[in-house]
């Protein structure tokens, strides 16, 4: 099959390719759609009685929270966060919250942090109002669960960029569109984890409640929800993290907050401008994660804890009234100048190494693979994808994957899809290689695992934009920058999944291999890795999805492909149709890769015949 594929490529290279056309019919059609929507926004019943009210409601929730934070001021908000931290996890969580909220002011981004926090709180509130009831219903209804599963799958595959163009089309730009987009993006984990929590409640507890004459509502209120509380708290935490990741990217549609500083810095390649906002986002993510995680384990607060929390909030309000709602300018650190100087020094000092790494990866991996994918006939690429998906994931997943891949051709984005696929495949391969090495080492060394755990925890709380900062500082704007950021972004979940899979291998199987005289390398290669196959393929699935998300964001730093089309669609009204089509194509690519890797992860390994000598010395197949 490999020989046939290579021969077909050599024979038909350059034929049946689909070049990119900036004036393709789908782009013009989608551009006309936006013109029609703008012209009929105040006349169509769809907008008058639904879309406009949703936009006004989302904007009002965000404006109300922003006004509350503005009135509380920096000290009042920090005192309130400290009190909540005390109730959730005691003094340690309270000190973390206080230090984090004070850090926003010290970094000089207090107002931007308050705007981002308002967007996050508004989006999380709406996501939970929608997601928790739906999750409870889905956990108790198998039929609803089956209806929601494919929708949630697509929502969780979609990169963040793909949500923005439809929001601009229906809700225009601004905070309201950002809140709606973030709510939709963050509601999927709320529904899915809540449904899982309710579904896993002990059947004996439910049966005991029913036998005592409790109604379905009473059983839900007194049995399902209390027993599912820790997992539901995890759903809240995941919703918050998803919302925080999205509101940063929503700066592309004029959302206020920390994201605007990062987007501006990326457009200017100014690391000093980006760094305070990036650090503030990481701090906010860590603080919120600690509070939500602690609240999942917290008992009912005592009167003393309530009194301490109330005193903390009151002290913050008093300090805010004495010193003013704004953060004192004299307490602010100005980091832009020193950071830019350090970046310039690092670029010149390490230029030989960074330039060699970038050029080697580009010339040895990115360019050849892109040349093959863009120069091959479309039917050959589709055929290879079909065979690979069929062999690894079965016929159903193969058909879905190939149909989604081919659907990018009528959109006029086949060539840019191949460019994006190039960066995703290279990034995923590098992330898997690094994740396998790190995961295997962590599984075999408890000390290394303990040392890496806090780093991986922190890495998984950071929004995707943050990973672009160090890559841009060292390697400048290029495709390699997007690939490197994708590798670093995908590395924590990949290495953790590999570590869990290796660690879950049966000790008896390992001991049996050692007793037969196998070396540690043979045990790893012939026992641990094969038995951890499912976890490794799941790691590949997560690596593909996360790398795709980062590669699309990499359009802001010269990543090209579909990410550049999406960014161009936001920046120039004339390219809106291309940007919207690129968002759809990104979703199709995500579904294609997800179906192949997810199907392979759930598919049992094929049994390979092996030869063992029989008693008579003849070969016997078993």
SS content category: mainly alpha
Helix fraction, binned, reads: over 70%
Quaternary state of the chains: single chain
Give, in spatial order, the strands making up the sheet with the most strands. 1-2
Mean pLDDT: 83
The whole-angstrom Rg is 26 Å
User: What's the total count of β strands?
Assistant: 2
Low-confidence stretches are: 605-622
Q: Please tell me what the overall shape is.
A: globular
Intertermini distance:
27 Å
Succession of helices and strands: HHHHHHHHHHHHHHHHHHHHHHHHHHHEE
Number of helical segments with 4 or more residues? 27
Any overview of this molecule?
It is a single chain. With 622 residues, this protein is mainly α. 80% of the residues lie in helices and 1% in strands. A hairpin with a 5-residue loop joins strand 1 (611-613) and strand 2 (619-621). The longest helix is centred in the first third of the chain and has 45 residues, at 45-89. The protein is globular and about 80 Å long. Residues 605-622 have low confidence and may be disordered.
């Amino acid at each position: 099959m490999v020989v046939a594929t290579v021969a077909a490529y050599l024979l038909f290279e350059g034929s049946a390719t689909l070049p990119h056309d900036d004036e393709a019919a789908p782009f013009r059609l989608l551009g006309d759609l936006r013109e029609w929507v703008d012209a009929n926004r105040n006349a169509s019943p769809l907008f008058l009685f639904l879309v406009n009210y949703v936009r006004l409601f989302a904007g009002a929730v965000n404006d109300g929270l922003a006004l509350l934070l503005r009135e509380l001021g920096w000290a009042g908000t920090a005192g309130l966060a400290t009190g909540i931290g005390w109730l959730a996890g005691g003094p340690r969580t309270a000190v973390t919250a206080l230090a984090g909220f004070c850090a926003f002011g010290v970094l000089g981004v207090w107002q931007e942090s308050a705007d981002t926090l308002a967007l996050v709180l508004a989006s999380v509130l709406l996501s939970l109002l929608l997601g928790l009831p739906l999750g409870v219903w889905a956990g108790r209804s198998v039929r609803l669960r089956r209806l929601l599963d494919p929708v949630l799958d697509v929502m969780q595959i979609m990169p963040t960029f793909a949500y923005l163009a439809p929001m601009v089309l229906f809700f225009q730009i601004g905070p309201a569109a950002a809140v709606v987009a973030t709510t939709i993006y963050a509601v999927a984990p709320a529904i899915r984890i809540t449904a899982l929590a309710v579904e896993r409640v002990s059947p004996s507890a439910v049966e005991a409640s029913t036998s005592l004459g409790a109604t379905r509502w009473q059983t839900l209120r007194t049995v399902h929800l209390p027993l599912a509380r820790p997992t539901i708290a995890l759903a809240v935490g995941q919703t918050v993290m998803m919302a925080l990741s999205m509101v940063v990217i929503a700066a592309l549609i004029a959302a206020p907050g920390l994201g605007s500083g990062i987007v501006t810095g990326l457009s200017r390649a100014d690391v000093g401008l980006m760094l305070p906002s990036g650090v503030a986002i990481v701090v906010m993510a860590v603080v919120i994660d600690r509070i939500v995680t602690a609240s999942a384990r917290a008992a009912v607060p005592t009167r003393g804890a309530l009194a301490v929390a109330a005193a903390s909030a009151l002290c913050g309000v008093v300090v805010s009234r004495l010193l003013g709602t704004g953060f004192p300018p004299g307490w602010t650190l100005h980091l832009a100048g020193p950071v830019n100087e350090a970046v310039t020094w690092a670029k010149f000092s390490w230029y030989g190494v960074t330039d060699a790494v970038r050029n080697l990866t580009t010339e040895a991996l990115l360019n050849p693979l892109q040349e093959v994918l863009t120069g091959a006939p479309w039917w050959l690429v589709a055929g290879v994808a079909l065979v690979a998906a069929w062999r690894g994931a079965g016929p159903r997943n193969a058909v879905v994957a190939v149909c989604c891949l081919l659907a990018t051709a009528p959109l006029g984005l086949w060539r840019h899809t191949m460019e994006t696929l190039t960066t995703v495949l290279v990034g995923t391969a590098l992330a898997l290689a690094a994740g396998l090495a790190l995961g295997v080492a962590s599984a075999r060394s408890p000390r290394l695992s303990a040392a890496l755990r806090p780093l991986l925890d922190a890495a998984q709380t950071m929004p995707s934009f943050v990973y672009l900062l160090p890559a841009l500082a060292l390697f400048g704007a290029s495709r390699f920058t997007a690939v490197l950021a994708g590798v670093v972004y995908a590395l924590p979940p990949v290495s953790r999944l590999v570590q869990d899979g290796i660690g879950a291998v049966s000790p008896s199987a390992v001991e049996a291999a050692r007793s037969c005289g196998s070396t540690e390398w043979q045990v790893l290669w012939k026992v641990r890795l094969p038995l951890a196959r499912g976890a490794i393929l799941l790691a590949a699935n997560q690596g593909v999805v996360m790398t795709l998300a980062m590669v699309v964001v990499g359009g802001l730093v010269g990543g090209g492909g579909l990410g550049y089309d999406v960014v161009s669609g936001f920046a120039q009204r004339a390219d809106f149709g291309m940007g919207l089509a690129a968002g759809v194509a990104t979703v199709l690519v995500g579904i294609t890769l997800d179906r192949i890797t997810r199907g392979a992860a759930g598919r049992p390994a094929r049994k390979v015949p092996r030869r063992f000598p029989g008693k008579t010395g003849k070969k016997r197949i078993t």
